[in-house]
Design brief:
The complex is a heterodimer of chains A (about 160) and B (about 180). By secondary structure, chain A is an alpha+beta fold. Chain A is built from 3 helices and 6 strands; from the N terminus they run αβαββββαβ. Classes of the chains: A alpha+beta (about 160), B alpha+beta (about 180).
C-alpha cells in the first residue's frame, strides 16, 4: 500500500478550520481603523464623534437574544457601556459572544428621546428578555448614544 | 411533434427542478415558520433561566473577594471569565456559557444558560443567510428555480375538463398577496 503523500494530507487537513475558540470571529465588515477610542472619552465629549466611525474595545456584556441584532460593549470606566446596533440580518451577533472580549466599529449616533419613547424602548427590551417593566420607573426623556454597527471581531466564539 | 416535444421538456424541467428543490424548500419552509414566530419563542437558542438567592450586598463597585463569595454561595468554585456592573446595584458575571445577573441590594440572582437549538439553529442560519459568500448564490439559484417551477407549472395547465379549476387556483394564489397588500399596505 502506498503511503499517503504528506502534501495531500496537509491540503486535506487545511480544509478543516481551527476550533472556533482558537480564533476571533469577524462579523460584518470586520475592522478597518487602526486605533480604538476609549468609551469614557466618547461619552465625556460625544459631539465631535457623532456621525464618525469609531472603534471600541471592551467586553461584550449583553447580546440580543432573539435576533442577534445588538450588543452592549463595556467601557473603560465602571458602569459604562454602549449599544452597538446592526441592521437585522446584516450582521447576526451570536449569543455566545456574551462575556467575551471584543472590538467593534461603527458610526456614533445620538438620539434625543421623549419620555414616551424611552418607555417604548425599555418596554421592548423587557419583552425581548421576558422581564416585567414598570412605565412609572421612567420619569423623563433622555439622550442616548449608540453605534450603528459596521463590523466587529469577537474573541473565543 | 413540436408541441409534444415542448411539453416533454417543460415537464422534465418542472420535475427535475422539483426534485432538486425538495431539500431547500423544506429548509426554507420549516425555518420560515420558526422565524415568523420569533416574537413567541427563541428560534435559535434554548435559554434556561434559574433563580437563586445570595446574601445581599450594598450597592457600589464590587470587590473581587465579594465576587468570589457570591460564586461560592452559588456552588461555583471557578473564577468568572468576565465581570461587568451596568450600575451600582447590579453585577453581571460570565462563566462558560452562563450569564449570572446579581441584584446586590436584594441578593436576587438570575442565571441563564443559552444553548443552540441543534435542529433549528442551522436551518435558520442558512435561511437568514448568515454564511453570506457563496450561500447567497445558492439561495439566488434556488429563488430562480422556484420561479421556473411556477412558470413551468403554469404551462402544465390541463386541457379541457380541469382547466377552469386550475385557473381558479392560480388566480387565488395571485389574489392572496394582493388582498393582504390592500389591507395592510
Amino acid at each position: 500500500m502506498k503511503p499517503i503523500c504528506p502534501l495531500l494530507l496537509l491540503i486535506f487537513l487545511s480544509c478543516f478550520p481551527l476550533p472556533d475558540s482558537a480564533m476571533a470571529k469577524t462579523l460584518g465588515a470586520g475592522l478597518s481603523l487602526n486605533q480604538p477610542t476609549s468609551l469614557s472619552e466618547i461619552l465625556g465629549n460625544p459631539e465631535p464623534y457623532i456621525g464618525k466611525k469609531i472603534q471600541l474595545q471592551g467586553v461584550i456584556v449583553d447580546v440580543c437574544e432573539k435576533r442577534g441584532c445588538w450588543l452592549y460593549i463595556s467601557g473603560d470606566r465602571p458602569f459604562e457601556k454602549i449599544r452597538f446596533k446592526v441592521l437585522d440580518g446584516e450582521i447576526v451577533i451570536p449569543l455566545e459572544a456574551r462575556g467575551k472580549p471584543g472590538t467593534v466599529e461603527g458610526v456614533l449616533e445620538k438620539f434625543v428621546l421623549s419620555r414616551d419613547e424611552v418607555i417604548a424602548r425599555r418596554r421592548h427590551h423587557a419583552e425581548e428578555r421576558g422581564e416585567t417593566f414598570d412605565p412609572a420607573s421612567v420619569t423623563s426623556g433622555e439622550t442616548i448614544y449608540q453605534l450603528r454597527g459596521l463590523g466587529a471581531e469577537i474573541d473565543g466564539i | 411533434m413540436p408541441s409534444s416535444n415542448w411539453r416533454h421538456w417543460n415537464l422534465a424541467v418542472h420535475r427535475d427542478l422539483g426534485f432538486l428543490s425538495i431539500g431547500l424548500t423544506l429548509l426554507y419552509a420549516l425555518s420560515g415558520i420558526a422565524v415568523n414566530h420569533a416574537a413567541d419563542w427563541n428560534p435559535n437558542y434554548r435559554i434556561e433561566r434559574v433563580a437563586a438567592q445570595v446574601q445581599p450586598l450594598p450597592p457600589g463597585v464590587v470587590a473581587p473577594a465579594a465576587i468570589g463569595q457570591i460564586l461560592n454561595q452559588l456552588g461555583e468554585t471557578r473564577s468568572p471569565d468576565n465581570v461587568f456592573q451596568p450600575d451600582p446595584e447590579n453585577l453581571w458575571l460570565y462563566l462558560d456559557k452562563r450569564m449570572i445577573r446579581v441584584h446586590l441590594p436584594s441578593g436576587k440572582v438570575e442565571q441563564d444558560v443559552a444553548t443552540r437549538r441543534p435542529f433549528w439553529y442551522p436551518l435558520n442560519f442558512l435561511h437568514l443567510n448568515h454564511p453570506k459568500n457563496s450561500w447567497t448564490w445558492i439561495a439566488d439559484l434556488y429563488a430562480g428555480a422556484l420561479a421556473l417551477l411556477a412558470l413551468t407549472g403554469l404551462l402544465m395547465l390541463p386541457q379541457r375538463s380541469r382547466q377552469k379549476r386550475s385557473l381558479l387556483l392560480v388566480a387565488a394564489g395571485l389574489l392572496i398577496p394582493l388582498l393582504f397588500l390592500g389591507i395592510y399596505y
